[in-house]
Design a protein that fits this description.
Blueprint lengths: L1 H23 L6 H9 L4 E5 L1 E2 L3 E3 L5 E2 L1 H13 L4 E5 L2 H9 L5 E6 L8 E3 L4 E10 L15 E5 L3 H9 L4 E5 L2 H9 L5 E5 H10 L5 E18 L3 H12 L3 H11 L11 H78 L6 H33 L7 E4 H14 L6 E8 L7 E4 L1 H17 L3 E12 L2 E7 L34 H11 L4 E5 L5 E8 L2
Parallel strand pairs: 1-5, 1-6, 9-10, 9-11, 14-16
Antiparallel strand pairs: 2-3, 3-4, 6-12, 7-12, 8-11, 8-12, 13-15, 16-17, 17-19, 18-19
Helix pairs in contact: 3-8, 10-11, 11-14, 12-13, 13-14
């Protein structure tokens, strides 16, 4: 008995399977239509990669969306596999269809202009166009209430043409795609967006644009079907047949899959994110306040400690400089005084020849000059620092003044030094008037030339003058002497700074000359600086204004 029942069930199952297979194998196309498809094996369908939820590319680079699912059902119904051609924007798809680079366009609204290029199937989906605004606006807004508002639409969409034609008074802002429109609205760059409801709902959920809402319907629906090239009417009939076999249940299933109408969870809303951001900012501000307060206390303690150390260092440095200055002055005064005293006693001797007495007199004179110069430098520095010195400007012949200083210093060059002084007049004028203090100018130039002679054993010392700009002259005293170490250059103009460049030779001087030059030039609205390389000489530059 059990064997008989099993055979009956097996026979019934076989009949059901056979019936099902026969149904699936039923061809909805005529023989002529089937032959036409057979003769066109590579029909191209334009597919967008950037238009969710209708057609787009997912994370795995697969074409998905409402229209792709409809296309799959169509292919099953007519037993034909289309070739896909991918595009990233709507304009390129439309242009490709018009030029017959593709044969079919998915999901397109029929318009008068497009009928010049395409046949259209019956619509397989109807999508209303809606008005989207930010949530601080009221519901049930009509298109007539959008006058004077900035409205974003997608360029070249059918709704764009519709609005331009029927509502020319609207301020339309065409943007490249729907997402750009929604983001512009969310960021308050426009006041409203008009687009397809399905796309709007999908992107608002996907991008969590929780400050946006649908506030109205413009009464213009997208009746979306397939567009087929104008010369292929047969294909239009074939696709219409395939679409007609898609049941309402299958359509609803596809729509429910891609357009989930559900509330956005509170934790994904704009309000929740705003609260979290505010709390986070408050937490950061409190933490930052505590940190800055502690840092301020540490900085205050560090500042006071630094000031105390600086005061201490300054006092120690002042004491060191004072000791160094006094020791140096003692040496600089004692040396010429000893020479004056010693040779003054010798010169009274009757045993000396007239030639020896003349030589000793010259030595006494040189040391008197050295002592006088030292006293002058000390007095100058004292007057400058006490503000008692004044600059007395007058018109002078600059070229003549420079030549006088050079000639004076030529006479002072020691016989054991093979040094030549040269003047380079780059002004190219034999006479040039300048309004300055002649005494202080000579003092500065003499000091720089004297230093160049002191630190040069041989070679040329070139004194030059040129224009620095329309309002200033540039002077330079360049020697070929022993030069300066790099570490000494920033210190060379400091008070009491006396740098011994050659340990084997003691260069006499107070260490005040360059500091006096610097301070005098500041009073004369000029400046001074030096460029030097150890072993390759130094170049001292200074400027004076042309009045």
């Amino acid at each position: 008995m059990r064997v008989k029942e099993y055979l009956i069930l097996l026979t019934a199952g076989f009949l059901l399977i056979t019936s099902s297979c026969n149904y699936k194998q039923e061809d909805i196309l005529t023989q002529k239509e089937r032959i036409w498809l057979h003769n066109h094996p590579s029909i191209k369908v334009a597919v967008s990669t950037t238009f969710p939820p209708f057609q787009f590319t997912d994370a795995n680079n697969n074409s998905v969306g409402i229209s792709i699912d409809i296309l799959t059902l169509l292919e099953n119904n007519i037993g034909y596999k289309f070739k896909k051609a991918y595009y990233d924007n709507w304009k390129n798809i439309l242009d490709a269809g018009k030029t017959k680079q593709v044969d079919v366009i998915l999901e397109i609204q029929e318009t008068a202009d497009r009928r010049n290029y395409f046949h259209f199937t019956k619509p397989f989906i109807s999508i209303p166009h809606v008005i989207i605004m930010r949530k601080n606006n009221v519901d049930n807004i009509t298109i007539d209430e959008l006058e004077n508002l900035r409205i974003a639409v997608v360029d070249n969409y059918a709704v764009h043409e519709h609005l331009k034609s029927l509502y020319p008074e609207l301020k339309l802002y065409p943007l490249p795609n729907d997402l750009a429109c929604l983001l512009a609205l969310s960021n308050q760059k426009v006041d409203a967006v008009i687009t397809q409801q399905g796309y709007a709902i999908y992107e608002i959920h996907k991008e969590v644009l929780s400050n946006l809402q649908i506030v109205g319907n413009i009464g213009y629906d997208n009746e979306l079907g397939f567009a087929i090239r104008k010369d292929w009417a047969m294909l239009t009939r074939i696709i219409d047949k395939g679409l007609s076999r898609i049941s309402p249940k299958e359509q609803d299933k596809i729509l429910d899959k891609w357009i989930p109408i559900q509330a956005i969870p509170f934790y994904r809303t704009y309000i929740f994110k705003s609260i979290v951001i505010i709390l986070f900012i408050l937490f950061i501000l409190i933490g930052l306040t505590i940190y800055l307060w502690n840092k301020s206390l540490r900085r205050s303690v560090a500042t006071k400690t630094y000031q105390l150390n600086k005061t201490k260092d300054k006092a120690e440095e002042s004491n060191r400089l004072k000791s160094s200055f006094l020791a140096n002055m003692s040496h600089e005064i004692r040396t010429p005084m000893n020479a004056i005293q010693g040779f003054s006693e010798l010169i009274t001797s009757d045993e000396l020849t007239q030639e020896q007495k003349l030589k000793y007199s010259q030595i006494i004179s040189v040391n008197c000059d050295s002592l006088s110069k030292l006293i002058d430098e000390i007095l100058d520095l004292s007057q400058i620092e006490s503000g008692l010195i004044s600059i007395k400007n007058q018109k002078i012949d600059l070229i003549n003044c420079i030549e006088e200083v050079i000639n004076t210093n030529k006479l002072a060059i020691p016989k054991d030094k093979n040094v030549q002084l040269q003047f380079s007049n780059l002004l190219k004028q034999d006479s040039f008037e300048i309004n300055t203090d002649p005494f202080r100018f000579r003092q500065i130039l003499h000091n720089l030339i004297n230093n160049a002679i002191k630190f040069s054993r041989q070679g040329n010392i070139t004194i030059s003058v040129n224009y620095k700009n329309a309002n200033e002259l540039l002077f330079c005293v360049k020697d070929e002497g022993i030069g300066l170490e790099e570490a000494s250059i920033p210190l060379i103009f400091d008070r009491f700074m006396k740098i011994e460049k050659d340990a084997s030779i003691l260069y006499r001087g107070s260490g005040l000359g360059l500091n006096i030059c610097k301070k005098l030039l500041e009073l004369m609205n000029g400046e001074i600086w030096v460029k030097s390389t150890m072993g390759h000489g130094s170049s001292f530059y200074f400027t004076l204004p042309i009045y």
